């Protein structure tokens, strides 16, 4: 409470709050102070890691001040707040990002250099915060950057996993997983708030009683209580003093150990409870676009949702406003269905704890929540067995049944006699056991549902959620095409290109308004500019070639065409099709004479990505890529025209090296399966062309950059069902070029072919569900067009420039503004 503070303290605080002079000398003073005090090291013994820590702590001091001022000013202004609930935040590294966003990079960089360190080496000491799997988690991170940069009063809520996504290493071409010990050293990017805790209960039973008004009230008494402890991660905006917060919860036991047991000498049992509590936030589930119905995962979800809602409600209650104002003060965005229990939890808080009437409470709930869907893959749809939910969360299960009952009554009123419709819309799947369909609950409990690219948003309306459109009308369903932050994905990852753009446009304004990149168009034919553009790309390719040499031992030629596919390994993303086409290319090269090979465009084909540890087929794809690489890379008879590389442990910081170095990247999912894709945007923003299917955001990228600057191929989404039908019920012959490649694998050319038969079987016995054979021919033709186009280097450069120039739409700033205006009704609030 400021008013009650000693004026001396207030005046000191205000002095502190004024930005210090962040010049080189002040930086160095702080650096040395942190080395000697925070790190307790001698100044005679500073290695790169200590230099990183001392720099990070200096930046952290700045961040904390801005963070405090932002929170203080939000408390005073009390604007409508936006809460982004995401089970994943794939932040990557923080130091470089903070330096750039706070505008400290230059002074601090000089300061570091002056003390005898290379800034690149210092930055390279940081371990990634890898609390996410792929697209969904990285999107959350980009959105936090935009929320901060645009001054929205926003909070992220997530879990502080002790172990993030596993580290991937290769052994004999196979993926092996290692734990991600990211917290083994101190983490300067989080502020532990050991005093901010919430008790979360599980299990137990529900008791009923009748209150003075004669209403039946419910009391849930859990039999297991776990403490959620807050860790705050400051997120600085670019070009603003606004610094927002991601609050990550960590699970701790309610009591340290069972004293009774301890005193009885049962030491192991005495600490068992503690260990079980800490299990909840121990590890991120490593599945992307796939649901695995483990009880611990459901516990994670409720633990996180209950702690976050408690925090949100506590903040609202402090303002003294009536409950009816809650939806005017609070917008909660559900990042996929993982946080759907928040809907039920808020209803429980309002009805059971705050005593609101059901309908009044439900109106508040549905005006508060909105839901983003990120996939239509059936295996990714979350559903939880009713007995599991009832056992862990007995009161929530009752509320879900009531929500469903009232919902279905409304459906029945509008569509009497349509029993099928009731079964299709029901939140409960009538199987044995019954299941709770989380997407249905999320739709019923939200006022808006959005997809993440135009095609995907249309598909959810015509496929998985079509029956809901019947009931609600289509206005409830909308599109917000994904975006990426240009701060990390151009400014930070590609400093040379960033500088070139800033120089030619005369300002850094493009970092705040990405559409201003369109001014680059007029330089697409400028000889001098093109030369500089090529120089930048070339140096990024050299940087990647060095990385590849260090991490795989393979030497690649930076003059070759760099062809990249980096993303989670998944059948629908079709890395398999890519490596099959590589074999086809290899065989064609071998058939050529050396004169013929002279005219061939040299290619380096680069793969990267993790497979979920339990995803057998995806792991075989990795093995096949490595087996092919081994044969191709040592075959001298093809004169260096082809190299294949699998870069291990693809993650955010590796992406920052890979993406700026691409000539062409592949986004080749079966049409209709990739909701949006976001790396496609990152590659094009960095002047890389793309080869892609008519899917996800590829379609909108195509619309923006034009026919001449993209290579599209393959069947369309609306043909997919018919093609699958044909595979199932007719004898569709395999594409002949593909058959040759299959024969080649089966002949043992790439090692023991029996290893790969489960993979080959997906094309035959598996009826080629992802339609590799159907797209193979047009894929190869598109590849040929790429080669032809690359031969004309000058025109390729023009295309590359136009790509970057036309990517304005795909800034996450644009996406966040759409959410704020169309879904949250939230306004910026600057500090
Ligand atoms: C991904 C989608 O696969 C990707 O196309 C999209 O760009 C990204 O979300 C961001 O919207 N989905 C996931 O990562 C995922 O796990 C299931 O979705 C919950």
List keywords for this structure.
Rossmann fold; six-stranded parallel beta sheet; single chain; binds N-[ethoxy(oxo)acetyl]-beta-D-glucopyranosylamine; 3 domains; alpha/beta; 34 helices; 831 residues
Q: Can you describe this structure?
A:
By secondary structure, the protein is α/β, with parallel strands linked by helices. It is built from 34 helices and 24 strands. It has a nine-stranded mixed sheet, sandwiched between helices. It has a six-stranded parallel sheet with strand order 21-20-19-22-23-24, sandwiched between helices. Strands 14-16-15 form a three-stranded antiparallel sheet. It starts with 6 loop residues before the first helix and ends in a 7-residue tail after the last helix. The mean pLDDT is 97. The site of N-[ethoxy(oxo)acetyl]-beta-D-glucopyranosylamine has 18 residues, from α7.
Brief write-up:
The protein is of the alpha/beta class and 831 residues long. N-[ethoxy(oxo)acetyl]-beta-D-glucopyranosylamine binds at residues 134-136, 139, 288-289, 336, 374-375, 380, 452, 482, 674-678, 696.
Structural class label = alpha/beta
Overall number of domains:
3
Unreliable sequence segments? none
> Helicity, in percent?
40-55%
Strand content: 15-25%
**Shape-level CATH architecture of the largest domain:** 3-Layer(aba) Sandwich
Strand order in space, largest sheet: 7-10-11-4-1-12-13-17-18
- Rg (CA only): 28 Å
Total beta strands: 24
Give me the oligomer status. single chain
Distinct compounds present? N-[ethoxy(oxo)acetyl]-beta-D-glucopyranosylamine
Please, how many helices?
Answer: 34
């Amino acid at each position: 409470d400021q008013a009650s503070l000693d004026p001396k303290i207030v005046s000191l605080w205000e002095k502190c709050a004024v930005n210090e002079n962040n010049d080189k000398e002040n930086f160095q003073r702080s650096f040395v102070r942190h080395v000697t005090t925070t790190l307790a090291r001698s100044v005679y013994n500073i290695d790169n890691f200590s230099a990183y820590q001392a720099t990070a702590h200096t930046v952290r001091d700045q961040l904390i001040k801005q963070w405090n001022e932002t929170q203080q000013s939000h408390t005073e202004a009390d604007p409508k707040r936006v809460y982004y609930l995401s089970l994943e935040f794939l932040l990557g590294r923080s130091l470089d990002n903070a330096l750039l966003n706070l505008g400290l990079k230059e002074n601090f960089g000089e300061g570091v250099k002056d003390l005898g360190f290379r800034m690149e080496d210092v930055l390279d000491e940081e371990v990634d915060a890898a609390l996410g799997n792929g697209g969904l988690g990285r999107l959350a991170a980009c959105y936090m950057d935009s929320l901060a940069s645009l001054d929205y009063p926003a909070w992220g809520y997530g879990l502080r996993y002790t172990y993030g996504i596993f580290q991937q290493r290769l052994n004999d071409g196979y993926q092996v997983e290692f734990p991600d010990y990211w917290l083994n050293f101190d983490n300067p990017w989080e502020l532990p708030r050991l005093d901010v805790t919430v008790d979360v209960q599980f299990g137990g039973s529900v008791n009923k009683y009748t209150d003075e008004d004669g209403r039946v009230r419910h009391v849930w008494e859990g039999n297991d209580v776990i403490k959620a402890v807050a860790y705050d991660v400051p997120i600085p905006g670019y070009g603003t003093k606004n610094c927002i917060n991601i609050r990550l919860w960590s699970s701790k036991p309610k009591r340290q150990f069972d004293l009774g047991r301890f005193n009885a000498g049962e030491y192991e049992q005495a600490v068992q409870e503690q260990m079980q509590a800490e299990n909840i936030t121990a590890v991120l589930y490593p599945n992307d676009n796939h649901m695995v119905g483990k009880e611990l995962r459901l516990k994670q979800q409720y633990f996180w949702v209950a702690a976050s809602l408690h925090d949100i409600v506590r903040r609202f209650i402090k303002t003294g406003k009536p409950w009816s104002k809650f939806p005017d003060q609070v917008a909660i965005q559900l990042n996929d269905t993982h946080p759907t229990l928040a809907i039920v939890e808020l209803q429980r808080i309002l009805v059971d704890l705050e005593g609101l009437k059901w309908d009044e409470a439900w109106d508040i709930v549905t005006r508060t929540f909105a839901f983003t869907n990120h996939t239509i893959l059936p295996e990714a749809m979350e559903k939880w067995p009713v007995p599991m939910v009832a056992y862990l969360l007995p009161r929530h299960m009752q509320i879900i049944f009531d929500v469903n009952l009232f919902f279905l009554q409304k459906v029945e009123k509008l569509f009497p006699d349509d029993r099928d419709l009731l079964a299709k819309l029901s939140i409960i799947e009538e199987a044995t056991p019954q299941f709770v369909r989380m997407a249905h609950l999320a739709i019923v409990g939200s006022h808006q549902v959005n997809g993440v690219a135009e095609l995907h948003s249309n598909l959810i309306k015509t496929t998985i959620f079509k029956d809901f459109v019947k009931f609600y009308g289509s206005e409830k369903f909308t599109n917000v095409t994904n975006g990426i932050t240009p701060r990390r994905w151009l400014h930070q990852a590609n400093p040379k290109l960033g500088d070139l753009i800033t120089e030619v446009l005369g300002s850094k304004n493009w970092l705040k308004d990405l559409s201003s990149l369109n001014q680059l168009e007029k330089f697409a034919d400028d000889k001098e500019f093109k030369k500089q553009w090529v120089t930048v790309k070339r140096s990024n390719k050299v940087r990647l070639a060095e990385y590849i040499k260090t991490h795989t031992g393979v030497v690649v030629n930076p003059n070759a065409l760099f062809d990249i596919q980096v993303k989670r390994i998944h059948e629908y993303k079709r890395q398999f099709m890519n490596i099959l086409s590589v074999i086809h290319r290899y065989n064609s090269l071998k058939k050529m004479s050396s004169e013929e090979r002279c005219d061939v465009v040299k290619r380096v084909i680069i793969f990267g990505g993790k497979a979920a540890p339990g995803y057998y087929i995806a792991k075989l794809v990795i093995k096949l890529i490595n087996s092919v690489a081994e044969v191709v890379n040592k075959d001298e008879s093809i004169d260096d025209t082809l190299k294949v590389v699998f870069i291990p442990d693809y993650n955010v910081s590796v992406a920052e090296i890979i993406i700026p170095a691409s000539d062409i990247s592949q986004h080749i999912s079966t049409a209709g399966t990739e909701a949006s894709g976001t790396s496609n945007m990152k590659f094009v923003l960095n002047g890389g062309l793309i080869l892609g299917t008519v899917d996800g955001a590829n379609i909108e990228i195509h619309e923006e950059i034009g026919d001449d600057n993209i290579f599209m191929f393959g069947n369309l989404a609306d043909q997919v069902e018919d093609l699958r039908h044909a595979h199932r019920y007719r004898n569709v012959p395999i594409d002949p070029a593909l058959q040759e490649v299959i024969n080649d694998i089966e002949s043992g050319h790439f090692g023991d072919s029996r290893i790969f038969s489960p993979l080959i079987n997906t094309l035959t016995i598996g009826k080629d569900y992802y339609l590799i054979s159907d797209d193979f021919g047009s894929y190869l033709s598109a590849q040929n067009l790429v080669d032809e186009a690359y031969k004309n280097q000058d025109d390729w450069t023009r295309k590359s420039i136009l790509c970057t120039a036309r990517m304005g739409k795909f800034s996450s700033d644009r996406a966040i503004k759409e959410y704020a205006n169309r879904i949250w009704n939230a306004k910026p609030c600057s500090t």
